[in-house]
């Protein structure tokens, strides 16, 4: 692992975070009914959280000598709250997988600080995944 490859991978992570923030914003605005209100309550604090992750990653890209790639990915939309939750769980699972791998790569690079930051991101995304999975299991009760 070299710094150039890490910059490339972190830029992909930035785009994932921006995509998640935009997806959550869209869902927050469009989730219908009572089930949608429950989802909106969960998503509202997640939107700025995802952007904070992107900020941390962008700062690290610059400190490694790169430039943040802030290309905005296309937002995939879903019609039902159940489909929104399912998609959000997939986003969080992907983030946990990516940050876990990235932490190992940061260790290989010899950047202990980045490794810890990425492990913390993986833990946060894991908590988000768990929260959404609980909601998915209980959404029909509404």
Short description:
The chain has 142 residues and is an all-alpha fold. Helix content is 81%, strand content 0%.
Write a structural description:
The chain is mainly α and 142 residues long. It has one domain (3-141): Ferritin, core subunit, four-helix bundle (Ferritin, Up-down Bundle), CATH 1.20.1260. It has helices at 3-30, 33-63, 81-109, 112-138. The chain is elongated. It starts with a helix and ends with a helix.
Characteristic key phrases:
Ferritin; 0% strand; mainly alpha; 142 residues; single chain
Look at the structure and name the CATH superfamily: Ferritin, core subunit, four-helix bundle
Taken from the alpha-carbon principal axes, the silhouette is elongated
Name the beta content range.
Answer: under 5%
Task: Report low-confidence residues grouped into runs of 5 or more.
Answer: none
């Amino acid at each position: 692992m070299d710094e150039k490859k890490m910059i490339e991978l972190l830029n992909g992570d930035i785009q994932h975070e921006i995509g998640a923030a935009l997806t959550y914003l869209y869902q927050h605005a469009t989730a219908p009914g009572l089930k949608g209100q429950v989802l909106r309550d969960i998503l509202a604090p997640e939107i700025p959280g995802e952007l904070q992750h992107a900020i941390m990653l962008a700062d690290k890209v610059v400190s490694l000598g790169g430039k943040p790639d802030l290309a905005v990915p296309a937002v995939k939309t879903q019609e039902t709250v159940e489909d929104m939750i399912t998609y959000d769980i997939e986003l969080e699972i992907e983030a946990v997988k990516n940050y876990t791998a990235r932490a190992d790569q940061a260790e290989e690079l010899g950047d202990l600080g980045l490794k810890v930051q990425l492990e913390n991101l993986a833990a946060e995304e894991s908590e988000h995944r768990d929260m959404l999975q609980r909601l998915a299991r209980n959404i029909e009760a509404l």
